[in-house]
Amino acid sequence: MNHPPVVAVVGATGAVGVEFLRCLDERNFPMSDLRLYASSRSAGKQMTFRGRVLTVRELNEQSFKGVDLALFSAGGSISKKYGPIAVQSGTVVVDNSSAFRMNPEVPLIVPEINPDQIHRHKGLIANPNCSTIIAIVPLWPLHKINRIIRLVVSTYQAASGAGAAAMQELLDATKAALEGRDYPPTVLPHPYAFNVFSHNAAIDPQTGYNEEEMKMVKETHKIFNDPEIRVSATCVRVPVLRAHCEALNVEFMSPADSTWVRDILSHAPGVKVVDQREKNYFPMPRDASGQGDILVGRIRNDLSDPSGRSIAMFVAGDQLLKGAALNAVQIAELLVAEN
Ligand code: A2P
């Protein structure tokens, strides 16, 4: 890899792509050039980075010549097609899609948890699913001390996880509802304004779990390197623009209490405890939006477990930042540090 690297962003015009640029800028990521790619629809569009106006180009098979590092967030099919082409050109790819996450050859990294996995890469590194990252950043420091044996999670997922078009659909549908107009959904499967519905990922007819839920199960196993943890997830879309919330119910191997959890999490990297019982002030998507930390609160002993080994808590994290762009840029920082 050149020092500093030539960087490409694939999907630069998307909800995550825009945040890639913001994170690269804010974190002062070292680079000698930046190239922006999207579909033919966006070719010629101009975006500003560090005071320079850059022109978005249409992605094609030649796009990776001379590129050292590419951040992908243009959907799984683009990653599947262009990821290997980029690697062939000598580019290291950090991919935000689910295309390669469960490939045993591909490291799946959350820098606060398994940064050492960076050394295993063969050109491709996967960025985990956003709901998985938001749950496991605060769980890892607890798991390291007192092994988690079971996790039951319910998500409250924002529009941003379905991309810029879904965010716009939420805005337009809400406006239409307030004006008393009909708004047939085109991006998500159900009316989004003032509604809550099961995550739009495909459902396995045998188990009844959807793909988003199974990502949380499998990715947690891979990142924690612990396939024994029993995980059950219910993933739901709520009418929030960005930042996901999740209710976590965690069963540990040994007794655990809320004071211990609060104490560990108040020193944990990437985590901020927001747990003001007296003010009824807990993690909210509005507070999580725009910040890199995962907010954790409602930390309490689970009254339903008489063995005293279970904790309930509520988290909120910016899906576009730590759930996507920020985590990917942190992975890129590991790569630069490695070289
Ligand atoms: P475009 O804006 O030109 O459609 P989001 O996750 O917000 O929906 O964004 C998806 C990103 O992936 C956008 O930047 C989008 O570009 C890009 N994209 C979609 N299809 C392609 C394609 N065929 N080639 C390259 N980029 C694509």
Describe this entry's structure for a reader.
The protein is an alpha/beta fold and 339 residues long. It has 2 domains: 6-128 and 324-338, NAD(P)-binding Rossmann-like Domain (Rossmann fold, 3-Layer(aba) Sandwich); 132-319, Dihydrodipicolinate Reductase, domain 2 (2-Layer Sandwich). Helices cover 29% and strands 23% of the residues. It has helices at residues 15-26, 76-88, 130-143, 164-178, 211-224, 258-265, 285-288, 321-338, and strands at residues 6-10, 33-38, 46-49, 52-55, 57-58, 69-72, 92-95, 124-126, 148-156, 197-198, 230-234, 236-237, 244-252, 271-273, 294-301, 310-317. Strands 5-2-1-6-7-8 form a 6-stranded parallel β-sheet, sandwiched between helices. Strands 11-9-13-16-15-14 form a 6-stranded mixed β-sheet. Strand 6, helix 2 (76-88) and strand 7 form a beta-alpha-beta unit. Helix 1 packs across helix 8 and helix 3 (130-143) packs parallel to helix 5 (211-224). The model has no long low-confidence stretch (mean pLDDT 98). Residues 11-17, 38-39, 41-42, 59, 74-75, 78, 163-165 line the site of adenosine-2'-5'-diphosphate (A2P).
Key terms:
single chain; 339 residues; alpha/beta; Rossmann fold; Dihydrodipicolinate Reductase, domain 2; 2 domains; 6-stranded mixed beta sheet; binds adenosine-2'-5'-diphosphate
